[in-house]
Amino acid sequence: MTGTRTRAGSRRPGISWQALLAVALAIPFAVPFIWLFASAVKPFDQFYAAPPTLFPNPPSLANLQGVLDLLDVPRLFANSTVIALITAAATVLASSVVGFAFATLPARGARLLFGILIATILIPPTVAIVPQFILFSRIGWVGTWLPLIVPSLFGNAFAIFLFRQWFRNLPENLFESAELEGANPFQTFRHIALPQARPVMAAVAVFAFVGSWNDFLGPLVYLRSPDTYTVSLGMATFQGVHVNEVHLSVAMACIALIPPIVVFVIAQRFLVRGIATGGVRG
Amino acid sequence: MLAAAGLSFAEWEPPLAPRFVGLDNLTELLADPRFGKAVVNTVIYGVATVVPGLAIGLGLALLLGPRRRGGTLLRTTVFLPAIVAGVATALMWGWVFNPRYGLVDGLLGIVGLQGPSWLRDPAWAMPAMIVIGLWNVGVNVIVYIAALGTVPRELHDAAALDGAGATARFRYVTWPALLPVTFYLAIVNAIAASQIFTPSYVLTRGGPGDATLTTALYTYQTAFAYGRLGYASMMAVLVFLAVLVLTAIQFRVVGRRVPYLGADA
To answer: Which among A11, A216, A231, B177 has most CB atoms closer than 10 A?
Structure first.
């Protein structure tokens, strides 16, 4: 991948037909965003214009202001951020410990256990949601954030898999020499293994954060009071109430998308590497 | 999972206590026309997104691969939708497909075509959902790009020296090396398709006339709108078993041809 040679025949400095095709194919991925952002800052009469115009003239912040007047948007963002941060931290912590255990401790039955764990990746969330809901309502957690956060304390099967792979690929005598020096498994994990696993930690953290941020079914099922709502749920509820005022839900979608897009552009290195690692090795 | 299996044999409509009803839920479900409709919709959605999604993913990966200059911006563009997927992008698509003021029908109008009402038209709502699904193909692209980076360069060079053209090199060098990844993506994408929920819930509530009712949405409605937890569990279990069988078939048909799948990952 990092080779400096170019494959025979593809050494072309100018614009190739592949480059043009690539740009042409990428356009449909960007156009809906452009349409959304342009629409969000259109004045009322231009927003509802048939045929539509592409760019607002002049731009207006009225739609965005309208959303902020009707909906406690900072509250929604704060809720989503807190939930996603705790979920990400818990997922990294729990998954790294379990992944380390699977990678190093030669416990009998570990392979079988690991197989079962991997199989749980195949269990879709909607299958588990009904029994999970019953469990959480029994212990009185419905209406709180706990059902959204606590499951991540048990780690995430995919993240455990990534950590295990990573730890297994570290030189074995790294752990052995730590043991000879008298370190217990926890110390080996804390001081030897974990500092080596920063790329995986970053990838898993971003993954878990994005997953929690985008989750809709969970908040929809478990949250009751609007001041506990996440961005997703608040936005969907808002759209349901203002179903005939599309300019408001479009502005809301715009507000909701800009922060994740900014974060993504900053964090994409980790994210891409994480997904690539999981896919190629899986 | 086990709890879901147990529940599926119960009639449970809180606040009433659960009551064991044997296979009643199963027989009712198999005769439930809305469930049948939801299954058909979900299968159509799955077939129409997974296979083209793999093809588009691979095609874009080949075009945007690691060696391309200026590829970062394009890769970011293609990948972004998958990362921000959720309620916000669903609302965005609702606006793109708006029959009066939307972008798609506006563009069709420019070339003199009268676009359909998309999400409000029973015939066009599902195609619109499929477009939204295909738009999230970014993960496939990223995974394929990473996989392309692992194809040994020497093999390419050797094949080129032996006079293999670009097509032959793809057919005999690149594609075999990509089989495991294709297999992985096929399974993951099929499972994801079987769970599709947010766009239907946000945009159409499964309508018009159940045209976009998926099994996940019907399960949700049954459990949390109609309050029939046992019946919903039976639904969830049945869908899970179907996905399991599908995955097993994929393993049997494709897995055998994938050299290192049997080996310890």
So the answer is: A231
Tell me what the pLDDT averaged over chain A comes to: 81
The residue whose two tokens read 């309208």 is A66
Q: Which residues of A231-263 are buried (b: 16+ CB within 10 A; e: fewer)?
A: bbbbbbbbbeebeebbbbbbbbbbbbbeebeeb
Q: Compute the count of residue pairs across chains A and B with CB atoms less than 8 Å apart.
A: 230
Amino acid at B235: M
* Alpha carbons within 13 A on the beta-carbon side of B63: 22
Q: Can you give the residue ranges of every domain in chain A? A: 17-60, 72-281
- Please give the C-alpha separations between residue B130 and each of A25, B118, B200, in angstroms, as whole numbers: 17, 11, 11
Calculate how close chain A gets to B123, using CA atoms only, in Å: 22
CATH class of A72-281: mainly alpha
Interchain proximity A277–B146, CB inside 8 Å = yes
Q: Which residues are paired to B10 by β-bridges?
A: B20
Which residue in the block uniquely carries the two structure tokens 């041809």? B257
- Sketch out chain B's domains with CATH numbers: 2-260 (1.10.3720.10)
Supply the ipTM of this predicted assembly.
Answer: 0.83
Nearest by Cα to A281 from B180, B251, B139: B180
Write out chain B residues lying below 8 Å of A19, CB-based: 68, 70
Per-residue pLDDT of chain B (265 residues), as tens digits, is: 566 666 666 666 665 667 677 778 888 888 888 999 999 999 999 999 999 999 999 998 888 876 656 677 888 888 888 888 889 899 999 988 888 888 888 888 878 787 788 888 888 889 999 999 999 888 888 888 888 887 777 777 888 888 777 788 888 888 888 888 888 888 889 888 988 999 999 998 887 888 899 999 999 999 888 888 888 888 888 888 888 888 888 777 765 555 444 333 3
CA pair distance A59, B219, nearest whole angstrom: 43
CA distances from B103 to A51, B21, B154, B252 (A): 9, 51, 48, 44
The predicted-structure confidence for A52-87, as pLDDT tens digits, reads as follows 777 887 888 878 888 888 888 899 999 999 999 999
Residues in A closer than 8 angstroms to B89, CB to CB, are 32, 253, 257
Let me know if A164 is exposed, middle or buried by CB neighbors in 10 A (0-12, 13-18, 19+).
buried
Q: Containing H/E element for B66? A: none
Closest by CA to B226, choosing from B35, B21, B27, is B35
Rounded CA separation A84/A86 (Å): 6
Q: Which of A17, A18, A29 to mutate to test the interface with B (most CBs of B within 10 A)?
A: A29
- Residue A257: list chain B partners with CB under 8 A: 84, 88-89, 92
